[in-house]
Amino acid sequence: MTRRPPIGEANLAALIAAVIGCIGGLFALGVAPSIITGNVQFLAAYPVFNVVSFFLTGIVSWLLGGQIGPRLQRFFGEQGGLITGGIIGGLIPVAGMIGTGLYLSTH
Q: What is the reported pTM?
């Protein structure tokens, strides 16, 4: 039976997702311009947007990881499900921010 946690519940998956989301979100907007131009300085070119992305991806990652992790426990066991759910929940918003950076750098 799949466990359905309340939204925003604190668990290991939410914590892992928030850490991955915050750190990834801090640099996510500059990844695409850095790759396109070959200049690493674009990772920190927009500090205000990077901080907004840091908080936004952190919050969304916390919410996603806290929901995905307990649902994966049936397939990967208790710890494995939470860790896998945390990683997936943290990478989804970071990928969205990388896509946003790609869109902003090409338009």
A: 0.89
